[in-house]
Amino acid sequence: MFGNWRIGSVNGALLAAYFIPAWSLVAFNIIIAPVHGLYERPSVAVALYLSDHLQMAGMETVRAAWLLALGRLTVVAFFAIYLVLLCIPRTRKSGGSDEALGIALAIGSLLSFASMVMASKVGELAALRLHATELLLLLGAAIVVVIEKPAAAPKTVENTVEAAAPLALEQAEFLHNR
Fold first, then answer.
1. Longest Cα–Cα distance in the chain
2. Which residue in 46, 47, 75, 103 has a CA-CA distance of 20 to 30 Å to 130?
3. Rounded alpha-carbon distances, angstroms, from residue 169 to 134, 161, 172, 173, 175
4. Could you give the CA distance from residue 66 to residue 168 in angstroms, rounded to a whole number?
5. Helix axis angle, 44-52 relative to 125-147, nearest 10°?
6. Within a 13 Å sphere around the CA of 128, how many CA atoms are in the beta-carbon half?
7. CB within 8 A of 91, min separation 6: which ones?
8. What does the alpha-carbon distance between residue 37 and residue 43 come to, in Å, rounded to a whole number?
9. 48 close to 124: Cβ distance less than 8 angstroms
10. Residue pair 122/45 in contact by the 8 Å Cβ criterion
11. Tens of pLDDT along 87-115?
12. Of 141, 81, 84, 86, which is closest to residue 108 (Cα–Cα)?
């Protein structure tokens, strides 16, 4: 069953198993209570950067929090699409699910990098470690997906009428008999 799984597929599934619940909870906390959710540990660096360096207050902070939640939910949605496509064997073998994974990795890396830069600007070391770790996970998976190629499609054998010898006693021709 696991003979046709590639390293990139397993790596993407493990990343999805982490990012879907973690980023969904953070995004839903921001959606429910934007300011309170923004000042929780995964997003506190963004909140401090917005308030200290960009002097955002009130409704602007709420809009920025919703934009962050939308970005996180977009990454979660692409990881979920990737997992659905991964369950289809033909799509998994041909690498058709790699596009959804690539989009999730690109947007997630962008969000993690921006959050990491904001955490370094405000001096929030715990958030800096969290975002740097997430960024390294995403970049490592992107490298594996780029380097690992999907399996080549099997070559088809064309039979011509002249090349095919008549079978003795109308025997069935199997692929291993050729």
1. 88
2. 103
3. 66, 18, 9, 11, 18
4. 74
5. 120
6. 10
7. 85, 97
8. 8
9. yes
10. yes
11. 988 888 787 888 999 999 999 999 999 99
12. 141
Both structure tokens of 59 = 């409704």
What's the token pair of residue 112? 């993690």
Residues 69, 43: Cα–Cα separation, whole Å: 10
Task: Pick left, alpha or beta for residue 91 (phi over 0 → left; psi -120 to 50 → alpha; otherwise beta).
Answer: alpha
Greatest mean pLDDT among 47-51, 67-71, 174-178 lies in 67-71
Q: Could you tell me the pTM of the whole model?
A: 0.80
107-111 contacts at long range (C-beta below 8 A, 24 or more positions apart): 107/71, 107/74, 107/75, 107/78, 108/19, 108/23, 108/75, 108/134, 108/138, 109/135, 109/138, 109/139, 109/142, 111/68, 111/71, 111/72, 111/75
